[in-house]
């Protein structure tokens, strides 16, 4: 039989293979020990739940024009649910904003299989395992980099990398360099709303930022709409269903 698969299906196949390999990774002993300890001990509020306790793959639209890059999974968020930015306050903030700006069909992300669909964006992290104190080491960051290179290579339509925080901004610069892209000179500094194509900066939606008002819903929506504009997408409004 002839191969009737489209380039889009070939891309999805590549992402599926990548997901299988990412979720089986055990390259970083400290991260493996921590993610599995958290999954065994569990937080009291989730004591009856089975934690994922493995590396977290990216999630979204294989035809995404906007890549949203975070730091790492939360110990009792994605490390519990198995989906990036899902199950914690940062994710609640992010997915509500993605819905308001037309990237998501619903404002909540609870667990895989909850009906959430992303359009024109892909969400991932610089480090795929939950790190102690939310602080990966430089070696752990660098060992995760090849996963990001492969992921970005498969997401051939990406035009904008929206970096959630300074760690993600630095990781995106490393990712571009490792992918063979020319270095951006002078090296751009992170800031909320900072632009240096294809990078766009946004404060991380951590409670430290959202509870203090350093990051507001208006600020988040503005930068997401700017990402749409830079990627050549429409202005974006909340989708239904």
* Tally of DSSP helical segments: 8
CATH topology: Uracil-DNA Glycosylase, subunit E
Query: At the fourth CATH level, what is the homologous superfamily?
Result: Uracil-DNA glycosylase-like domain
Please identify the top-level CATH class: Alpha Beta
Distance between the termini: 38 Å
Kindly report the spatial arrangement of strands forming the biggest sheet.
1-3-2-4-6-5
Q: How many domains, in number, for the residues?
A: 1
Helix content percent band: 25-40%
Helix/strand class = alpha/beta
Task: Give the SSE order as H and E letters.
Answer: HHEEHHEHEHEEHH
Q: What does the radius of gyration come to? A: 17 Å
- Count of beta strands: 6
Structure description:
With 241 residues, the chain is of the alpha/beta class. It has one domain: Uracil-DNA Glycosylase, subunit E (3-Layer(aba) Sandwich). It has eight helices and six strands; from the N terminus they run ααββααβαβαββαα. α1 runs antiparallel to α5 (138-154), α4 crosses α8 (217-230) and α5 (138-154) crosses α6. Mean pLDDT is 94; it is low at 1-5.
């Amino acid at each position: 039989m002839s191969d009737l698969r489209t380039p889009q299906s070939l891309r999805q196949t590549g992402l599926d293979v990548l997901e299988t390999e990412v979720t089986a990774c055990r390259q970083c002993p400290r991260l493996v020990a921590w993610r599995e300890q958290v999954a065994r001990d569990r937080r009291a509020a989730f004591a009856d739940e089975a934690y994922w306790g493995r590396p977290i793959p990216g999630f979204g639209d294989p035809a995404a024009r906007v890549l949203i890059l975070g730091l790492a999974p939360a110990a009792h968020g994605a490390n519990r649910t198995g989906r990036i930015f899902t199950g914690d306050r940062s994710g609640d903030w992010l997915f509500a904003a993605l819905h308001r700006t037309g990237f998501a069909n619903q404002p909540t992300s609870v667990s895989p299989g909850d009906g959430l669909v992303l359009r024109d964006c892909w969400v991932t992290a610089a480090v795929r395992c939950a790190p102690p104190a939310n602080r990966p080491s430089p070696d752990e960051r660098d060992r995760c980099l090849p996963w990001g290179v492969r992921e970005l290579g498969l997401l051939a339509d990406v035009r904008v990398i929206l970096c959630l925080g300074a760690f993600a901004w630095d990781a995106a610069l490393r990712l571009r360099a490792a992918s063979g892209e020319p270095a951006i000179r002078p090296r751009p500094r992170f800031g909320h709303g900072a632009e240096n194509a294809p990078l766009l900066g946004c404060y991380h939606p951590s409670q430290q930022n959202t509870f203090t008002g350093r990051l507001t819903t208006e600020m988040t929506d503005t930068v997401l709409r700017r990402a749409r504009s830079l990627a050549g997408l429409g202005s974006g409004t909340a989708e239904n269903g």
